[in-house]
Amino acid sequence: MLRIAIPNKGTLSQPASQMLRDAGYRQRTDPKDLICRDEPNNVEFFYLRPRDIATYVGTGDLDLGITGRDLLVDSGVAASEVLDLAFGGATFRWAAPPGTITSADEVGGRRIATAYPGVVERYLAEHNLKADVVRLDGAVENAVRLGVADLIADVVETGATLRQAGLVTLGEPLLRSSAIIIGRPDHTPAGVSQLIRRLQGVLVARSYVMLAYDVRADLLENATALTPGIESPTVSPLHREGWVAVQAMVQRASVHQVMDELYELGARAILVTDIANCRL
Ligand SMILES: Nc1ncnc2c1ncn2[C@@H]1O[C@H](COP(=O)(O)OP(=O)(O)OP(=O)(O)O)[C@@H](O)[C@H]1O
Ligand SMILES: O=P(O)(O)OC[C@H]1O[C@H](OP(=O)(O)OP(=O)(O)O)[C@H](O)[C@@H]1O
Ligand SMILES: [Mg+2]
C-alpha cells in the first residue's frame, strides 16, 4: 500500500485534501483524524505537520508527501520535488523597517529572525555572508519591533501581515514557493506514477475549460487558429448546411478573450464547460 503524507493543519491542509479528492482518492472527513485508508486505491494517507513531512519522506518511512517548497528546502533532507501542485503559492522574503536595511547585500552581520533557518542559512552560504539567525516558531513580524532582530525572513503572500507590522520587503525573494509532491528519486513503488498522472489530470482540468461553438465552414481555419486545442480541435458537421460545430480545450485564463474574438469572427452558440478531470 502506498503511504502518503498530507498536511494536517495550516494553509496547505484543505487544498491538499481537496486536490486528492478531485483525483478520486478518499480523504478524512473528521479534521482530527490522523490516518485515512483508501482501500480501493491501495493508498494510506497520514496527516502530519507540513514542516515534518519532508523528514518522513526523506527517511523513507513514507513514500510521498505534500508540503511547501520552502519547507522542503528548510528541512535540508534528501527528498526531491516530483510535481508542482499550483496552490499555496507564496514568496519567501527579507523585510525590515523602512529606511533601515534597503538591499539584500546589507543582511550580512545583522540579526535575522525567521521560522525557516534552513532557507536563510542556505542563502547566506551561497552569498558568502555571515549573520546571526534567530530561530522563532511564528509571528516573526513582531521580532524587529520587540528588539530581537534587525530584519526578518518570512513567507509573504498578500503582504498584509508585513504592512500591519510596519515592515517593507527588500531585494528579490529568497525563493518562490508553492505546494509540491515530494519523493525520493531512488524510490518509486507501484502506484506512484498512477497517482502523479491523476494529479496532473486535476491540474490540467483546473487550468483549461472546454469550449464549443458553431461557425460557418468557410471561417473554420480562422476560428481554429483561435482555438487550436491541445492535440487538435474536434470538428463535426451540423444539420444546417455550410456550418460546423467545433470543440477544443482552451486555457481558462484566456477563455473570455477567445470567446469575444470568436463572436466577432461570426461564431455563434459559444459554450464553455468545466472539465472535471482528464488524462491527456
Ligand atoms: N499566507 C500564507 N501563510 C503561511 N504559509 C503560507 C501562506 N501561503 C502559502 N503558505 C505556505 O504554507 C506552508 C506553511 O504552512 P504551515 O502550515 O507551516 O504554516 P501556516 O499555514 O502558517 O500554519 P500555522 O501558522 O498554523 O503553522 C509553506 O509552504 C508556505 O509557503
Ligand atoms: O503576506 P500575508 O498574506 O500576510 O501572509 C503571510 C503571513 O501569514 C503567515 O502567518 P500566519 O498567520 O500563518 O502566522 P504564523 O507566523 O504564526 O505562522 C506567514 O507566516 C506570514 O506571517
Ligand atoms: Mg503560519
What does it look like?
This protein is of the alpha/beta class and 280 residues long. The protein has helices at residues 13-22, 50-59, 69-75, 117-126, 142-145, 160-164, 192-207, 220-226, 255-265, and strands at 2-7, 35-38, 43-48, 64-68, 80-84, 90-96, 111-114, 132-135, 151-156, 168-177, 179-183, 208-216, 234-237, 243-251, 268-274. The strands form three sheets. A six-stranded mixed beta sheet has the order 2-3-1-4-11-5, sandwiched between helices. A five-stranded mixed beta sheet has the order 8-7-9-6-10. Helix 3 crosses helix 4 (117-126). The model has no long low-confidence stretch (mean pLDDT 97). Bound molecules: adenosine-5'-triphosphate, 1-O-pyrophosphono-5-O-phosphono-alpha-D-ribofuranose (PRP) and magnesium ion. The site of adenosine-5'-triphosphate (ATP) has 16 residues, from helix 2 and helix 3. Residues 205-277 form the Histidine biosynthesis HisG C-terminal domain. InterPro entries: ATP-PRT_HisG_long, ATP_PRibTrfase_cat, ATP_PRibTrfase_CS, ATP_PRibTrfase_HisG, HisG_C, N-reg_PII-like_a/b, N-reg_PII/ATP_PRibTrfase_C. Belongs to the ATP phosphoribosyltransferase family. Long subfamily.
